[in-house]
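Sharing a chain and its predicted structure for anyone who wants a worked example. Both blocks are below, sequence first, tokens second.
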Amino acid sequence: MEITREQAILIAVVVIAFFWANKQGYFTAEKDKGANKDPNETGAKTDGSEVSISDAEAQNKARSFRGAMLDNSYSGQIFQDACQSLLALSNADLQKVSNKYNTLFVNEQYNTLRSVLQQEYVFFEESQKLRKQLLSKFDEINI
């Protein structure tokens, strides 16, 4: 049995698509995405930061980010402001906000900070840039 050129190209495209999807986290179990991690754990604070926000502040940031993502149909600026508010946090503080988010929305459809961001479809170049930066930061600290 001999593989034709078209079949070889198709196989290569499928393999590349598989690796891309795996890197994007499409094959990661939902329970493993945004798992609770200790913000003071060595792997969580890659920037050497310490937690500087209270539980109440982390909870407020988590709720407001979810609200901004789910109510983003009116303005792209809402999305950009929400992303910038999380990008401004240190890694340890962002991990704490993620942990708080995970406890607030356990049985909801978008139950992790990453999932609520990934579901958001963005049109504007600035929004796409901020979304990519935030997802990159999530990857860096394993959210």
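Comments welcome. The longest helix spans residues 5-24.
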